[in-house]
Design goal:
5-stranded antiparallel sheet, 5 helices, 4-stranded antiparallel sheet, MRJP/yellow-related, 6-blade_b-propeller_TolB-like, 436 residues, 36% strand, globular, glycoprotein, mainly beta, 9% helix, secreted, Neuraminidase, Bee-milk protein
Length: 436
């Protein structure tokens, strides 16, 4: 068979199996913004309020309504010179159709450093099913340099249709540790009637090794403790694409399972870990389980018996209970059908790219007007920021996407059901209990 004939056969096989890799939608060497004026931009550059190579895109989420699409991108204030921390993608381009300018959200007035009624520093966000954007603001700046807490940690909720703030909740000091950093938020809508009043948010404390539960209806919060929120020392060493560093980060990745009516599972893991854990949100929503800093239900928290081949950062779970994750060491997008045991035999590699898939720090599922689920991922080469080797002349930040049904077609992640263990939880999980 000649090379051209072989290529045709491979392409036909690719289509027959439904194998589709992620599509590259946007990419940047460094990001630029839509400024109020050229004069404003020049003034920010002179003052150091904007340093062109310093902003680091970290997370992405998408809102679709009546054919309108809004793509949110976060840029935590890791370094000086990040003028806006929460943005949307503009239709304006900076000389490259794949490198759009970013528009501060809701507008520039919210991004004045040190003004605590605005937005200080956002790692991740979540768009809920009610057309709202949930924002966890750490209140910290210069996080990768020396880290300064200049404003309180807060949860902000915006009505995306109007870009108006509907909720601001400043997290009480008693729910925090002196070193708390809150990088991830997962939202749990509990209303059976679709009125969106009964909602909870779960917020990871990556350095305080805890979880904060926010009850939106009653406007209160509490802290959850578990040994599974801590880093695993043996997994605190990272060797990613030739860059090595140590990072003992605790709970970071949060993935909310689909709402089945009476309960939902929250999947979670520490960044310095190669295991996955989960807990029913009914456990988290009962504040009496966590009074006085104690966890009286440690056996309700579960951890996988088997390990991944490397650490992972962001995760997301689709409506069919399939969990997607990026293996940081191998630069792959993988999936796991959570109805099956958590074993490597049940992990499916969906995509592998040593350039495009370096460190997926943000991962979300959106649903278009056709009802199809779409996976979105933001990759940021974060390992190079940890080692100081980022090259501003290379493409460093990318947003990729693909329809979920095409990604998983013909794989174990397409399965609709599987047996549960006698304990009622997916096989391959076990509670490892430490006395509190």
């Amino acid at each position: 068979m000649s090379p051209p004939e072989m290529l045709v056969v491979l392409l036909l096989l690719h289509c027959a199996l439904g194998l589709q890799k992620l599509d590259l939608l946007y990419q940047w060497k460094g990001v630029d913004f839509v400024f109020p004026s050229k004069t404003t931009k020049e003034a920010m550059l002179r003052s150091g309020y904007y340093i062109q190579d310093n902003p680091i895109p970290l997370d992405v989420d998408v809102w679709n309504q009546d054919g309108e699409e809004k793509v949110f991108v976060t840029l935590p204030r890791f370094k000086p010179g990040t003028p806006a921390t929460l943005t949307t993608i503009s239709t304006k381009r900076n000389g490259d159709n794949m490198s759009p300018l970013l528009v501060p959200y809701p507008d520039w007035s919210w991004h004045r450093e040190g003004v605590c009624d605005g937005i200080t520093s956002v790692f991740r966000v979540q768009v809920d099913t009610c057309g709202r954007l949930w924002v966890i603001d750490t209140g910290m700046v210069d996080i990768l340099v020396k880290g300064r807490q200049i404003c309180p940690h807060q949860i902000l909720v915006f009505d995306i249709r109007t870009s108006k703030l509907v909720t601001r909740y400043r997290i009480p000091e008693e729910d925090l540790k002196s070193n708390s950093v809150l990088p991830t938020i997962a939202v749990d809508i509990r209303d059976a009637d679709g009125k969106c009043r009964d909602a909870f948010a779960y917020v990871a404390d990556v350095t305080g090794f805890g979880l904060i539960v926010y009850d939106a209806r009653h406007n209160r919060s509490w802290r959850v403790t578990s040994n599974y929120f801590y880093p695993y020392p043996i997994s605190g060493y990272f060797d990613l694409n030739g860059e090595t560093f140590d990072l003992m980060d605790g709970v970071l990745g949060l993935g909310m399972g689909p709402n089945k009516g009476d309960d939902t599972k929250l999947y979670f893991h520490s960044l310095a870990s190669v295991r996955e854990s989960w807990v029913s949100t009914s456990v988290l929503r009962n504040s009496s389980n966590f009074k006085d800093g104690l966890n009286v239900v440690p056996r309700k928290f579960h951890v996988s018996e088997e390990e991944r081949s490397s650490q992972t950062a962001a995760i997301v779970v689709d409506e069919n209970e399939v969990l997607f994750f990026n293996l940081l060491k191998s630069n792959t997008l993988d999936c796991w059908n959570t109805r099956k045991p958590y074993t490597r035999n049940n992990f499916v590699e969906l995509d592998h790219d040593d350039d495009l898939l370096q460190f997926a720090s943000g991962m979300k599922i959106s649903k278009g007007k056709d009802g199809r689920q779409k996976l979105w991922a933001l990759t940021c080469r974060f390992q190079k920021h940890m080692t100081g080797t980022i090259n501003p002349r290379e493409v460093n930040y990318r947003i990729l996407s693909a329809p979920v049904d095409q990604l998983v077609r013909g794989t174990a992640c397409e399965a609709k059901s599987s047996a549960l263990t006698s304990s009622g939880r997916p096989g391959g999980y076990r509670p490892i209990v430490f006395e509190q």
